[in-house]
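Sharing a chain and its predicted structure for anyone who wants a worked example. Both blocks are below, sequence first, tokens second.
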Amino acid sequence: MNLELTDEQIALRDTVRRFLAEKASVAAYVRPMLDDPMGTTDAVWRGLAGLGATGVLVPPDHDGAGMSMVEAGVVAEELGAALDPGPWLSSAVAATRALTRTGSSDGLLAEIARGTAIATVAPLTGVRPGADGATLRGGLTAVSDAAAATVLLVLADESPGAGLYAVDPASEGVAVTARPHVDPTRKLFDVELDGATGRRLADAHPDAVAGLVDDVTIARAADALGAAAAVMNMAVEYAKVRRQFDQPIGSFQAVQHMCVDMYESVELARSGVIHALWAADAADPAERHRAASRAKAFAGRLTAVGDTAIQVFGGIGFTWEHDAHLYLKRLLGWSAYLGAPGRHLEEVGAQLVSELNRKVLH
């Protein structure tokens, strides 16, 4: 596993970063999108597709770039740093991995790569709707980007097992309702299926679903890393220029300690995220899941970065006009994803104890 980005990955990072700075800045793009259920515009989505970002994980035989989760993590980190409110993670990661992990050969992959289709997956956890022939019934909660999606991928209970279905969110029998939550840069919805027509794509084996949950968790960790690093850098730069008592506040030991704490958390998270991105493709399922659990267990520390940054900014950091609170909310959303970090910390702790016991016994 290489912890350093290759020249190609650096070029991908720089290209996405430049595009977001020019076409999707926080002030000119993200803030106007906060109350927009779509979370993106045609121009920005076409731009990301033109860069190849929507097809980064799509295999080459489906017109995609055929890259790995490491490259997807590079894109996710830049989107997190820019607070992108669009459906990239839902379509380019969750939907793409759902299709590839279940072995679906549907033409939807090529449409995702071209950006002509936006897909999302629901649900990854919890109750799944039942499939009755080609119709689906049941409730789906906290579905990401359902308003922007042209295709809803549903994991439906069958007898026996489960299947992956494609549903048109605009079709009869589908009701989509916005779901309020802490992070306005993420669009969540509740979806009710009442006899909605679904097109069966593939079997959804438990191993494939477990892998999909890990994939999305890891990609979201990369997004959170980008957000945490961005707000940390903003706070550090502010500490260099904000003056009190005729000197920069960054010269005060208390502020220096806060900046060091933020840096430590971001860099520890970075190593864990890079390992998890590698494990998503290259490791066995057990190691992949451990890496995803560790990334999620660290979510609380990353959220603390946003909180500490606001302390460095002082009063201005609490205002609506400042962007720091948007970064904190992005990190709070990550912390709440799949439950609070405490459960995942317990899981990681149990894994460590189990590994130590095996070593002692041998």
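Comments welcome. The longest strand covers residues 188-203.
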